[in-house]
Amino acid sequence: MCGIVGAIAKRNTVPILLEGLKRLEYRGYDSAGLAVVDGGALRRIRSTGRVAELEKFAQADAVSGALGIAHTRWATHGAPEERNAHPHVSGGVSVVHNGIIENHDAMRERLRAKGYAFVSDTDTEVIAHLVHSNLQGGRSAEHTLFDAVKKSVAELIGAYAIAVVSESDKSCFIVARHGAPLLLGLGDGENFAASDTSALIQVTQRVVYLEDGDVAEITLGGHTICDARGNTVARPVFVSQLTAGAVELGPYSHYMQKEIFEQPMAVANTLEMVTNAHSVAPQLFGADAEEVFRDIDSVLILACGTSFHAGMVARYWLEGFAGIPCNVEIASEYRYRDSVPDPKALVITISQSGETADTLAALQHAKAIGHRHSLSICNVPESALLRASGLRFLTRAGPEIGVASTKAFTTQLAVLALLTMVLAKLRGRLSAEGEGDLLDSLRHLPTALASVLQVEPLVKVWAEKFAGRHHALFLGRGIHYPIAMEGALKLKEISYIHAEAYAAGELKHGPLALVDEHMPVVAIAPNDALIEKLKSNLQEVRARGGELHVLADQDTRMTASDGVHVIRMPDHAGILSPILHTIPLQLLAYHAALQRGNDVDKPRNLAKSVTVE
Ligand code: M6R
Questions:
Q1: Protein residue whose Cα sits closest to atom 7 of ligand 1
Q2: Whose CA is nearest to atom 8 of ligand 1?
Q3: Is pTM, for the whole model, over 0.85?
Q4: All domains in the chain, ordered by first residue
Q5: What is the CA(571)–ligand 1 centre distance, in A?
Q6: What would the pLDDT profile of 140-195 be if each residue is shown by its tens digit?
Q7: In what order do the strands lie in the sheet with 3-8?
């Protein structure tokens, strides 16, 4: 979703702003722009192409300035056209914005009545005019840009992260956040702001995370933060562990490819705490976890997209092994539903980014209606979701840049398996022997993932055929049904092939009508308790001409024949089987998308961090 960078320095900030935008490209965008204060005048350039095109414009026009703001826009209000691209300008004031201003219509009318003319379809333009109006013509002791922005954000309803510059004051830029990510980067005699740490990695690792309601003035020498109540506050400084190498492509062609192949290491890092342990302890989830886990009588999982699928897998584990009732709900539905709170439920939010607006709002809603216990499983340190949760577990997948979530998913599942063990043990449902066996399985997981990645050449052959199809069906049963859903999501989001997932037993209740020789069908067929049932369902498909692509265990009795293609998984992982079966599905989507010539890492219309609802 939109990305923001701001900088003030004694040198030209344009290269810093452009590099920051390039590092935010992964979030998804359809236009880009920047504004600098050059001498005493504001200069703005915008482009509906990639950041590289904006860079060419900047070079051609010799744009430079020691103070600037920049933006990648993911269109919400108004088409992706240059006039809607940020920064927006009002007089000498320029604004970039991430989020949605809900009261923009009413504000537009008010500002029009004051004589402001609107030239874009965006909600953001109202912020530029509002700040300009509140600035009332320049800097004085009583009327700084800082004051004008504080006054302006008090009038905004909605979610935003903004950065503002004014040509009337070259000594600072102002940022504010409410419901969208924004942090400050502290340099040596120069300072910055950005949507995430990766944008600033080339200039600083010292960051300050802003809280909702904060407005900050950033100068060459430092920063001043005012909280939502108008008090000046000091926020802690963190040293980001992110390294430039972690966000470089290295020998890979795409981030998605890199992230698929990083999964053995990502899972090993995430499980590091249990690698040498003989038992699992609740404290893995936080100092208060044991007290909380002993108090709960159910689990409610809230998440979106791939993270939701991780929650669906976890339900099978939590009910089956820990014997604890578990509901899993799409965050964007839950937040607007009249539900019955259970104060003894553990609300688990799962998110790669920790900034997904719907998941954050669902957690806030759950708390507001009376849930007392919360746990977040998240991949981004200091993200809003981690900070909003009572208990937390940081997956250590490393930065996930590709829009399609891969290593975040498998690390989430590893943590959810660990949580299942902890809860099962606390509830007297896990023997010492069982605990040892499961720990062995978790320890073996990185090795098993590495061997499953070896099926890539076989999956590539499938992908070449899928690339020419318009539709695909994914089937699974039991705990592998959510894995079928994840496979379908991966395929549709990066290859744009229409894909549906069904619990295979449900096929005959409708979707079987879709099956003919043009419908490739992927079946996840581990040798588990439901394998014979699944085989019957697959017969129903084959009898209608559907071409089967079966992911089978070594000991699943299924042989390849005309219209039946079988890839045997080189390793198995007992109850962790869903984690392994995910890998070929990720590879299938990746290679099908490549075949179709798609931008694998930045699929159309999608964003990495979905910070608006
Ligand atoms: O950052 P989150 O895990 O909260 O994101 C949730 C979804 O937006 C995300 O999983 C999305 O579905 C992915 N693009 C799927 O690959």
A1: 305
A2: 305
A3: no
A4: 3-247 (3.60.20.10), 255-430 (3.40.50.10490), 455-595 (3.40.50.10490)
A5: 28
A6: 545 799 999 999 999 999 889 999 999 999 999 999 999 888 999 999 999 999 99
A7: 41-47, 31-38, 67-73, 3-8, 191-194, 183-186, 206-209, 238-239
